[in-house]
Amino acid sequence: MRYTFLLKSLMILLFCSQTLAGDFFNLAGKNTLEISEIGIWHKVDPQEQFSNFSSIEKSLTHTQPVEGTLVGHSGSYVAKIALINNSDATQTWFVNPNLIFVDIGLAFWQRDDGSVERLDDFSQLNDYRTPVLMHSQAISLITQKQEQGYLWLYVDAKQYVNPLSIKIYNTAAFYQNQFIVNVITITAIAVMLTLALIAVIIFFRTKNSITIACAGYIGLHGLGWASAAGLLDDIFSIGSVNLSYTGILIFPFAIAFASQFTKLLFNCQQEHFLLARYLNILTLACVAVGALLPWVNYSLAFTISHLIALIWITSSVAIGIKMLRRKFSRAKYYLLGNASYGVALLIYVLLHARIIEANVYPELIVLSALAIDCICILLSLAEWLYGQQRNYNRSIYLARIDPLTNTGNRHLMSEKFAGLKSHFIIVFIDFDGIKSINDQFGHEKGDLFLIEGAALMKRKTNDKGDVFRTGGDEFVWLFDVNHKNDLTALVRQTNTLVNECENELRQQGWHSAGISYGIATSLEGNNQSECMSLADKRMYAHKRSKKALLNPHEDKGITSHI
Fold first, then answer.
1. Do 153 and 184 lie in a common domain?
2. pTM surpassing 0.85?
3. pLDDT tens sequence for the chain (562 residues)
4. Strand ranges (DSSP E) for 122-187?
C-alpha cells in the first residue's frame, strides 16, 4: 500500500509539472534543441506592414498553423514558440531558422511578465549584427535563470527550399556548428574560384578556348554557391538587392559553359557530330533560359534551374561513360567528378524531401561534391592539354626528323645553324654506290644501307656533333666548336671518323659502297652558307678523285652480307 501511494504521488507530481510547463520547450540541459516546422508556422498576409511586435502579434488572431511542410512555398509566416530556461544561470542561446533565402526576418522575445525585447533582424539584407552562418541565419537570445517566455519570428521569402525547422544551440554547440559549416563552405567556394582563376591563367598562356569554357564552368558554380550561401551578401551590400537569389539565376550560364567544355574536351565537333549538336543546342537553351529567369517568378526560376541540373547531371554521366569506353584517358576524371556531383544532388533531394534523415546541412554535401567535381574537371583539362602538347611535340619531331634514318632533316639543321655560338665545322657527305645497291637488290636494301650508314655516323659523332640527312644519300655533319684554336685538331679527327665509317660499312658487307666528303670550317667563309657551299664543292672534288683512281676494266661487283 505504501509503495502504491508513493507511485500515485509521483504520477501526480509529474502531471502537475507538465501542466505548469504547458507547451514550453525546455532549453536547460541541452546542447541543441530542434523544433519541427509542423504546426508552428502561421501564414499571414504579406501585404500587411510588419514592423513592430504588436502588428505581428495581431496577425495570429485569425490564422491557423500550417500543418504541412513549407518547402516549395513562398510568402510571409509567423511562429510563436514557448521557451523556458529551467537552469539557475543566465544563458545565451543562438536561434537558427533553417532559411537560405530570406528577405525579411524579425525576432522578438516576449517574457512572461509581458515585456518585449526586439532581437536582431536576420534577413539577408539586414543581418550585419547577427553571427555569420553560411546557408542560414542565426540570432542570439539571452535568458535569465528560470525565465520563460515566447520567441516570435516573422519571415518573408520568395522560396522556402528547406523544411523551416528551428534549431536552438547553446554557445559551445553553436560556435562548433558555425566553424564546421563556414569552413567547409568557404573552402569549397575558394577551391572553385581558385581553379577557375588557374583556368583563366592557362588561357592567357595557351589561347585555347577550352580553358575559358572550363573557367566559366567552374567559376560560375563557385560564384553561384557564394551567393546562395549568403557569402556575397556578407561581403558586399548592394542596397535592397538580395544577392542570395542570384545563384539560381547564374546556374544556367554555368551549364552553358559546361556543355561547351564537354564538346571541346572530347573533340565532339570532329569525332562525335551528333553529340556536338546536342551540346550546342543545350548551350543555346541554357543561355536563353538564363536571360529569361530574372523576369519570371522566383519559384519557377528555382524549379527550372533544378530541372536543368537534372538534365545536365544525367547527360554528363552518360557522356563520361561513353567516352571512357572509347578509351579517352581524360574521361575518367570527367566521369568521377560529375558522378560525385550527381550522387550529392540525389542525397540533397532526398534530405529535403525527408526520405532520408541526417543531422547535416544538405548544401554542405553538394558543395563538397561540387568542389571535387571542379578539381576533376581541371584534371581532365590538364589531361587534354597534355595530349595536345604531346601531339604538338610529335608534330614538331616529325617535321624535324627524317623518318627513315632517324636523323635530323633540313629544318632541324637550319635551327642548329641558328643556334651556333662561335666556330663550327661542316662535313658534307655523299654515299657512293647507292644506285648499284638499288638496281641489284631493290630499294628496300638501299633503304637498309642508308639506315645502317646513318646509325654508324651517329655512333661515331656521338656527343661531338649532329648528323642531318639533306637529300637521298646526302648527309651533313655539324660540329659546334667553342675555341678557334681547336678547329685544326678537330678537322683531323673528323677525317679519321669519316674513314672509319667507310671501313666499317665495308666490313658490314657493303663492299662497293663508300663515302665521298668535304670539310669546311667557319674560318673559310663569311657566313654559314658559304661554308656549306665550300664543303659541298670539296665533296664533289673528292668523289671525282676517287673515280679517277678506279680501274675502268675491273668490276669487283657488290657482295652483300645478305
1. no
2. no
3. 444 444 334 433 333 333 333 478 888 878 899 898 888 999 988 766 677 888 888 888 888 888 888 888 888 999 999 999 988 889 999 999 988 888 889 999 999 888 999 999 888 777 777 888 888 889 999 999 889 999 999 999 888 888 888 999 999 999 999 999 899 999 999 999 999 999 999 999 888 899 999 999 999 999 998 988 888 877 776 667 778 888 889 999 999 999 999 999 999 988 899 999 999 999 999 999 999 999 998 889 988 988 998 899 899 999 999 999 988 888 999 999 889 888 887 777 676 556 666 666 677 888 888 889 889 998 998 888 888 788 777 777 777 888 888 888 888 888 888 888 788 999 999 988 888 888 888 888 888 988 899 999 998 888 788 999 988 889 999 998 888 888 888 889 989 888 888 888 888 888 778 889 999 998 888 888 889 899 999 999 888 888 777 655 444 433 333 2
4. 139-143, 148-157, 166-170
Which neighbouring-strand residues pair with 77?
A: 43, 155
CA-based nearest residue to 158, from 33, 81, 73: 73
**Residue 210 forms part of a structural domain:** yes
At 223 the three-state DSSP class reads helix
Q: In this structure, what are the phi and psi dihedrals at residue 422, rounded to the nearest 5 degrees?
A: -140, -90
**Would you state the cell numbers that stand for residue 401, as one nine-digit string?**
626528323
Which of 151, 171, 191 marks a domain boundary? 171
Map grid coordinates 657482295 to a residue: 559
Query: Which of 80, 71, 119 shows the shortest CA–CA distance to 99?
Result: 71
| Whole-number Å distance between alpha carbons of 376 and 213 | 15
Centre a 10 Å sphere on the Cβ of residue 492 and count the other Cβ atoms it contains: 9
- 3-state SS class at 386: helix
Q: Do 259 and 155 share a domain, yes or no?
A: no
By CB neighbour count within 10 A (0-12 exposed, 13-18 middle, 19+ buried), where does 81 fall?
middle
Cα–Cα distance list, 277 to 282, 338, 377 (Å): 9, 21, 21
Same domain for 147 and 292, yes or no, is: no
Residue 33, beta-bridge partner list:
168
Write down the residue that cell numbers 559551445 correspond to. Answer: 172
Provide the residue type at 511 as one letter. H
DSSP states of 37-103: STTTEEEE-TTS---SHHHHHHHTTT--B--S--TT--EEEEEEEEEE--SSS-EEEEEEE--SS-S
* Domain final residue pick, 107, 141, 171: 171
Closest to 268 in 3D by CA, of 258, 278, 257: 278
Q: In sequence order, what are the beta bridge partners of 108?
A: 118, 152
